[in-house]
Amino acid sequence: MGYGRFDREKSQQTRHAPRAMKRAVFLDRDGVVIQQWEGKYLDDPEGVELLPGAAEAIRRLREAGFLVVMVTNQAGIGHGHLAEDTLGEIHARLQELLSRKGTKLDGIYYCPHTPEDVCPCRKPAPGMLLRAAEELGIDLSRSYMVGDMTTDIEAGKRAGCFSILVRTGFGGSDGRSDSEPDAVCDDLPSAVDFILKREALGDR
Ligand SMILES: [Mg+2]
Ligand SMILES: [Zn+2]
Q1: What was the pLDDT predicted at 198?
Q2: What integer pLDDT is reported at residue 37 of this predicted model?
């Protein structure tokens, strides 16, 4: 009888034990994973075009044990220029293109708000990264943020991640934030080279 009680307590303890924390690489979308859209908002799934080497880069990160999570501002929704369903189709198209190359994104988070909404998720606020960390069990202090805008860098730093600016897309020329990246790389493939090398050196 005493045993039964012991076992029950033990199983409850196991159930409430914290999950092993995962590590992630957060990626901005436009100018990092896919081609920067020429118009104001990408509103057509056929317009999704992977940047050179992006799929392979994502595959390498996942093979190294990272979750790869995309975090994208989508004010077009808040402004009424982009339907949430269409955004879903665009992201389904992106996942399809990645799956053809043997990989995928482990999560996609978007902020549908406009700057005037002053929400906690629009980058440079760190809300999308914090939410992903909560939902996916991510250790932010051992994770990375890769982006082409200074607002991506600020969001990554505010979430406690190591931040990497890439020279594709805006290449940091947006001038919206004073945040300095922890590293600068040519593009996503070189950012992944950098991350995997840094990991191998145990420099974290
Ligand atoms: Mg971008
Ligand atoms: Zn938001």
Answers
A1: 96
A2: 82
Q: Per CATH, which fold does 21-200 belong to?
A: Rossmann fold (3.40.50)
**Cβ count within 10 A of residue 97:** 17
Answer for the pair 129, 145: CB distance below 8 angstroms, yes or no: yes
Record the tokens describing residue 43, joined without a space.
């509103």
Q: Which is more confidently placed, 147 or 18? A: 147
Listed by start position, the domains of the chain span 21-200
What's the pTM? 0.90
User: In the predicted model, what is the mean pLDDT of residues 8-34?
Assistant: 76
- Shortest-distance ligand to the CA of residue 125: 2
CA-CA distance, 51 to 10, in Å (whole number)? Answer: 50
CA of 31 to the centre of ligand 1 (A): 5
